[in-house]
């Protein structure tokens, strides 16, 4: 209800939320893989 009200008032907010959520989900495995890579190199 609140989300639909926010989206109807400011549609660009939805894109920002989706962008950050998508980036967060994608970055978690990347950071974990980078951590494993650095741990293996050192």
Automatic annotation (TrEMBL):
Stretches that traverse the bilayer: 12-39
Q: Could you tell me the keywords of this UniProt record?
A: Membrane, Transmembrane, Transmembrane helix
What's the protein called, per UniProt? Uncharacterized protein
């Amino acid at each position: 209800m609140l989300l639909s009200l926010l989206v109807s008032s400011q549609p660009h907010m939805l894109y920002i939320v989706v962008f950050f959520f998508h980036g967060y989900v994608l970055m978690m495995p990347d950071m974990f893989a980078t951590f494993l890579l650095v741990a293996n190199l050192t």
